[in-house]
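Give me the fold.
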Amino acid sequence: MTSVTRLLIGLSAAALLAGAALPALADTPAASAPATAAPAQAAEPFTWQDMIRANRLGDPQVSPDGRWVVYSVTTTDVEANRRSGSLYILDLQAADGAGRRLAISEGGANTARWGSDGKLYFLSGRSGSSQVWRAAADGTGPVQVTDLPVDVNAYRLSRDAGKVVVSLAVFPSCADLACTVDRRKAEADRKSTGQVYDRMFVRHWDTWNDGTQNHLFVVNTDGSGKPVWVTKGFDGDTPSKPFGDESEFTFTPEGDAVVFSARLAGQSEPWSTNFDLWRSNGLSGDGTFENLTDDNDAWDTGPVFSPDGRTLAYRAMARPGFEADKYAIFLRDVASGRVRQIAANWDRSADSLQWSADGATLYTTAGDVGQTRLFAIGVTSGSVVPITGEGHVSAFQQTPSGFVFAQDSLTRPSELFVKTFRGREMPRRITDVNPQLDDKAFGEAEQFNFPGWNGETVHGYVIKPANHVEGRKYPVAFLIHGGPQGSFGNSWSYRWNPSTYAGAGYAVVMIDFHGSTGYGQAFTDSISRHWGDRPLEDLQKGWAAAQQRYSFLDGDKACALGASYGGYMINWIAGAWAGEFDCLVNHDGVFDTFGMGYSTEELWFTEWEYGGTPWENPRGYQEFNPANHVQNWRDPMLVIQGDLDFRIPTAQSLSTFTALQRRGIESRLVVFPDENHWVLKPANSAQWHTEVFGWLDKQLKPVD
């Protein structure tokens, strides 16, 4: 055991998660509406154990004829401490259809995509490595499409399904794939362990740089010919690390070239957000590329060609170095190269784009005042029309009559819904992958607003405890979101889930302070260089407004909790708002903003947020530095850290705990050696929640 105390719990994950097993998902019933729940007073409250066990739906994909939707469902095996995914298919034309698990799931299957040939393509490791496979529309007769010596981590089909472009992690200095295989083996066989770096990134998110980059290769789906390394000679990753996907690259409509979003690595990669759209020189792999967005030094991504192939739509930011800038929508005429922006006055940041079949409309999702809605944008007029209402749309696909989309909310994980293009009808739910939640009691949520910093309107949510009793007061979990350009809105989370606190008997208050997303770009911009004043003022005013408005909040029994920037704010509150809360919980939070400028990996973030490098603008790093106010700390704090977190490294939480202990303040440190910025493994999630709720109960519900 090192000097870092790892606090262990004596119960197994299975014991912590004891409860009724989930129903089998061999045949998942559709549901036109949620089942009628028992009266809240009689229902069992939703708990964090229920959350960990819940099934996770995602990635809906509609067949070319519009009849079928394939989607993924991830289940949790608590005893084995792992999650596994399966593919399901649902007939959209059946009135009372039921999702059926595809047989290809038995060998492992994910990332299903329909080809224009009506076949179902997917990734599977059944051959010993991750490769592209193809099956019939009903999921039978799987055939291997690619047989490459390294894993396929992403792929995209050409329009005629005759080719597939795949992303592989390779050594860019190699001449071919065999060289990458040989170098990996030599590295594995090497006796010494020292790693040498001549440029950054040295590490990124949770992984040390091993010298490989994500590069694109084109393979014929009929097995003919050899793979063509189309990005050979390009110094950069496609898709980007660590979270990029196939939305960052695509074939041209003719299938004769590839357009991809990438940033040149060089020496400036860690402080640059200059992703451009590049076009390969055919499929020759000759190492030459055309930069389609050279005029913009900010982020360009998400290339999507129109159905007629004449227009390339994409998203772009305007300010170099700012990762939370608004994603605006641009159209590039393929023949002339002329570019124009559409919906320029729409003050929301667009997510991935889809063209309508007639090419007249683009569809996208965007955060919008605590919701994430699906929007239709007129290509000619630039008009913006919301299609969905409350809730969080995480994915969508078009059908001949409308949409299939995955949507979640504060009280329900993701399910599939259908809605017509122009109808005003409520969306109809067509899946029920978590029927065990139908009879659970959730806390009632209400969005409210108040005048915050500068008198500007700020929004938040208050959630009653599950099975709330009128006239009673309840202790409060005051949740602070991270980002800081993020939001705690009407959405589901498998990590910071407000309903778990409501289920444990706590009221919940969440404030979307200045800097949050979904309220216009100026609102998002307002936090940069102002981490400690404007957001804190919003939190203070929001907390006061909530207590004044909601009599069930017990302001004398409250704990503030946050992660990442939220964890920074916990440290800032400890010095700038000491004594307001009975306890604090800080997950992977920033303690020393000056030190962050030298230790985090994505330097563009700190350099934008604090106004330059630490040596150019030391005042910007010190103005709202929690480390400078430790002398004011007095509130009990639980500190949690993932040791693989390279975004906010372990030294930050160790410093927080050191300050608390040296000051003699009641404190507790939990370190997860095998987790990054997020706690993901089922057993670790169980321990995390046991520690957090144990801390809250100890401080707010003491036993005599």
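The radius of gyration is 25 Å.
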